[in-house]
Amino acid sequence: MTKTDRDTLRSLHGRKKWEHIWAYYKLPIAIVLIVVYILGYAAYRHVTKKEDVLYLGLVNITAGSDLTEQLTTGFAEAQGLTKKQQVNLLSGLLLSESEHAEEQYVYASEMKLLGAVSAQRLDVVLMDEYARDRLLADDYFLDLRTLDASFRALSGLNAGGTVLDISDTPFVRQAGFSGKVYLGVVQNAPHPERAAAYIHYLFQR
Question: What's in the keyword line of the UniProt record (predicted)?
Answer without folding.
Answer: Membrane, Transmembrane, Transmembrane helix
